[in-house]
Amino acid sequence: MISAEYLAYRIGTSTAVLACVSVLTFGMMYLTPGDPARAVLYHQTGQQPSAEAVAAFRAEHGFDDPFPIRYWHWITDVVQRDLGESYRTGRPVSTMIVDALPATIELAIAAMAVALVIAIPTGVASAVYRGTWIDQASQLFALVGVSMPNFWLGYLLIIVFALHLGLAPVSGTGGLSHLVLPAIALGTGMAAIVTRLVRTSMLDVLDAEYVDAARAKGTAERIVVYKHALRNALIPVVTVVGLQFGFVLNGAVVIEIVFQRPGLGMMLVDAIFARDFPVVQGVVLIVAVLFVVTNLLVDLSYRVLDPRVQFGGEHA
Amino acid sequence: MVSRDTPLLSVENLETHFDTAVEPVRAVDGASFTVDPGEVVGLVGESGSGKSVTARSIVGLESPGEIVGGSIRFDGTDLTDVDDRIRRQHRGDRIGMVFQDPTATLNPVFDVGEQIAEALRIHDVDRQRLTDFMHVPFVSDRQAWRDHRERAIELMEQVDIADPGSRAGDYPHEFSGGMAQRAMLAIALAGDPDLLIADEPTTALDTTTQATILERLDSLAATGETAVLLVTHDLGIVAERCDRVVVLYGGQVMESGPTEQVLTAPEHPYTRDLLECLIDDAEPQTRLSTIEGTVPDRFDEIGCPFASRCDYATAACRTSDPPIVDPGPDHRVVCGELETVPDAHVMDGANRSTRSEPTDGHAGSDRPPGNERERRVASASRTGDGTAAILAARNLSKRFETTDSWVDRLRGNRRYLDAVEDVSVSVERGQTLGIVGESGSGKSTVVDMLVGLEAPTSGRVELDGNPVGTVADRSAEQLAKVGVVFQHTRGSINPRATVRDVIAEPLFESGWDADRRTDRVDELLELVDLSPTHADRRRHQLSGGQLQRVAIARALALEPAVVVLDEPVSALDVSNRAKILNLLLDLQEQLGLTYVVVSHDLSVVGHVADEVLVMYAGQVMERGPTETLFDRPSHPYTNALLDAIPSVSGDTPAASLPGSVPSAVDPPSGCRFHMRCPLAEPECRSETPSMEAVDDARSRCHFASEIAADSDDDSEPLEHISPDTFS
Amino acid sequence: MSTVAGVLSRLESKRLTTIARTAVSELRSNRLTLVGALIVAVLGFVAIVGPLIVPYEPAAQDLSNRLQGPSLAHPLGTDQLGRDVATRLVYGARVSLGIAILVTALRVLIGTTVGMVAGYAGGWVDELFMRLVDVQLAFPGLVLALVVAGILGPSLRNVMIALAVVGWTTYARVVRGSVLTIKERKYVDVARLVGTPRLRLFRRHLLPGVVNPVIVIATLNLGTVVLATAGLSFIGLGAQPPTPEWGTMLAGGRQYVRSAWWIVNAPGVAIMLTVLGFNLLGDGLRDALDPKQQARVEEV
């Protein structure tokens, strides 16, 4: 359904975006006030480093080279799947990421699943029973869900389900039981957003003439809603859910801290505090790649879902 | 006619209300009528008359409105008194429905074949299960799925969709309006209904495709098995297609009866007024009859809804419900003042009088009767490329690039759309040029180039004999000389500005000071018959007719010599249309204006224009004096356009044209019209005809003079425009 | 016969729908909007006047009164250092609201300018700005803010810079979209026809169309910024102890969730109510100002 040409075009632009992203990512360390090398050493040892130590560090890590050359060294390594070594532990960043990534992806997917399982039925019911208590309750849920900080929700869940009811472990990783509370904490906010979206989208669609036309055929209301309306209403939802993937990654950082789940987020925060630049750069780059690829997939699926979109390709 | 003893559908005192925060809107307010088996009944009225809501109430689609009273008896069952399941079973099975905008009534995400197959599926199953309708692999019955698809394709063939096998896999957006409406018809017919409700089925279609759909409905009813309830605002359609007519106003039936009787001897003042507003038989360029006032948003609960606009209304009309009178068999009129209403004159078209409008007091109302055009034509020399032209286009062409992919662009694989090709027009001072064409003919692009919003790819525009560029290049004086009234007036008015600001905008830009602006706006408001109280309103507080007046006032602000009007009346009801056309004619006489009027409606152009340009697929097909074009057209397309106008007084029903306007991206070779032309010869396919003079007209057809001679033989007067020679 | 007249009469029933719907939804959303406005007003009042009337100092430690539950003296209890939670909450309102307003203002300024210029100029300028937005959008917002703030060094000022840098793209996209739509409007053509100079065209016809969506987004955004600031502070990148910031307070109480639930929940509720207030207000404004809603009423 999607032309090879369009695919090439989208992959081309995505690659260009990622190239710019990599420059920015690498350049971020220059935001450090003062000498980054001094900052790194200070954070490692907890005291002001000597001039010699700084000089040695700079030489070892090529800090004295101009930016384009340093970037070139870095990016050529990156392309060969070498993200450098952690300043702190000396471990290869790529290994660290490979270790931490599954836990985060697991959390992200679980949270998305929670969100969709809650949001789609709630949103549809809210639109179909517009104005009734069902609608009001689901809108209230959506409002509160959007407004609630996920880290606080995390603690609420811990207090109620882990501490008082003892239904789930407080923290750490492990089986499904370790995943439930973090996934709910992270998924609720997204569920709220998607609920609202499904509701508005459904309301728009239910107003469309083709829905009445379907009813005029004698179609049962259930089929009108779930076949004719929902299929159309999901088109904008897919886009937003894709964009929400970024939201999940944002939230994962905080949720991992709340539930003490080792993952990409926790690793990133630790690295930031330690001025462990290779790790920060590696994580940011990976997150950006994940994000850009998701958006690409969403864009392509959108074209499959909506036959009206021209497959020839479109210029932004 | 089928037996009238047992009506198929009997609507009695139907009341459908819409709840609002203030008070309910009584959209349908006690309407009663019947439809017999195999009969075609027209339900007519202006917008806001409640005709659509009535139709939708019958099939149970009145939501968010609510049926609060009355009954809808269909073949013995009161549909207002049964549960949703029974009501639903009637839909599709017994009652089919076709809606107005066919492109909006097909679900955009399913292919057309599936949507027709679904209608078939509904009639085959007792209980509709989601899995049967969603085509879930391994769960759905694949054989049934395939059968329904095949039958859907047969149905498509029955409604004349060419190549149904492959078209079934197309999505609605790949269908033209006419084709989509046929698909809707196939859906409605899937269950072999006893009654087909068609809610303005052709309003969104071009006139030449309109007739094919209507013919289809006609032939359905002709079999005697299906009755048709045709909801329309077009009395011409009613006259041609309906056995009986029901006239609706304010959600109530004003008059009903056999079409012949109601349209030739209307009793109710509203029916008469509606008929008199029609351009149909009016002398060209004379004032049309109008109905005072506009359709109100809400009607009083008691009394005749039409009382506020009726010439014969008495106090009793407003305080008590009017009685039902039967002037003839099966003819019902709801009016209490029939005695005071003068005897209905027989409306045979030719000697219909145009009633003067005492309430619309205006400079133009004392205009002497007679054919205005003849007088003006006599005084103006007319040549196609007249040197005295005030506004002229010389060999205008406009090409848009449609290469949408950057890869194609890089490869040099560019695609173009020739929206306008080699169009030459000119209009002389005080004259009116009409430009006619269906959607996609390029007429709006011509307007954009004339007024300077688009630069021509080649050719030039001349104002007073001097070449002018686009808006950016024109001097203030040149800009002031041309006023423009855009199509879709609503969009041309800033929603945030007051009427005063809107009209004053050109004055402001020309550096008028505040006091002078105020005076001029007041003057202009008076000129277009708006009261000073309108000055402080905004867009959403104005009716369609009022908006049109505001746009006209703005166009006139700087005293232009030429006013370009793009579809000036297409959005308006008959009575408002008549009022705006009257206003335009008055203003022309009063201010000596020159008009360029663009419309898809040949009757509008025929009424106002001295000269007409007929466009098709970006080219001029024919051009000449209005009478010549109407009396003895020399191009088959002009002929087809004339034939397609449904008319109250016409003897033969409007004829249709097969096919649709070709894509301008890939225009056909030879004559652009050959694919739809009833007279096409092999040479039309290969050789592009050039503009050829036929008497005082010019035509782009190989057989122009023969056609002209042929249509001359009919020697029909201008008013009777259905020679129907070629179909 | 006439297309538009037909469309209008089809809308006959839809018009009534819209009338009914807007009336009902306005009434309901009005009430909710009022609640939102009330929350925001109370919050503003507390932030401005609160610190003048509370009896405690936000940083005053009282180790003998650590982890005290809610009482008359300490309506929301005391924290791990014996500080009055209610007092810190009141001071925290000042911090949260101040940052929310400043960050949102910065975002509006950057985003609106970029969007206007890109939409109006078109061509390569548009292309350049929009690619910039694309690059920016390749990072999940909070992750980027986290990194920027983290590398700049943990402080409220840096959090503000980071959040401003991260959040302007929404405005740029919406404003550009509005400008592009309005540019296609016929009334802009009319203005061109009467010779309106560019700058006035911009000011009279384009700018007003952009103001409403920006107001709506900004209101909703205030809530988002409150959430993000609290989140970053919770991680430890924003306000540093002993600054009374809600996210920091929440982080400080997390070892005591079992014994002193109020330390975590008091700021949690405060954050939620604040965001809820802005959301309700923003939704109400959108219903009232949304050009789409207006258009729906107007077009019929």
What does this structure look like?
The complex is a heterotrimer of chains A (316), B (727) and C (300). With 316 residues, chain A is mainly α. Chain A has a domain at 93-305: MetI-like fold. Chain A is 76% helix and 0% strand. Chain B is of the alpha/beta class and 727 residues long. In chain B, helix 21 links the parallel strand 19 and strand 20. The longest helix of chain B has 18 residues, at 574-591. Chain B is globular and about 75 Å long. In chain B, helix 4 (112-124) crosses helix 6 and helix 20 (544-556) runs parallel beside helix 21 (574-591). Helix content of chain B is 33%, strand content 20%. Chain C is built from eleven helices and no strands. Chains in contact: A-B, A-C, B-C. The interface between A and C is large, with 49 and 47 residues.
Q: How would you sum up the global shape of chain A? A: globular
CATH class of the domain at 93-305 in chain A: Mainly Alpha
* SSE ordering of chain A: HHHHHHHHHHHH
What's the overall average pLDDT of chain B, rounded? 84
Instruction: Briefly note the structural class of the backbone of chain A.
Output: mainly alpha
Q: Radius of gyration of chain B, rounded?
A: 27 Å
Percent in helix of chain A = over 70%
Output the CATH topology of the domain at 93-305 in chain A.
MetI-like fold
Shape of chain B: globular
Radius of gyration of chain A: 24 Å
Trace the largest sheet of chain B across and list its strands.
Answer: 6-7-8-3-9-10-12-11
Give the total of beta strands of chain B.
Answer: 24
Uncertain residue segments of chain A: 311-316
Distance between the termini of chain B: 28 Å
Overall mean pLDDT score of chain A?
A: 87
Structural class of chain B, by secondary structure, is alpha/beta
Kindly estimate the percentage of residues of chain A that lie in beta strands according to DSSP.
Answer: under 5%
Instruction: Please provide the count of β strands of chain A.
Output: 0
Cα-to-Cα separation, first versus last residue of chain A: 20 Å
Strand content of chain B: 15-25%
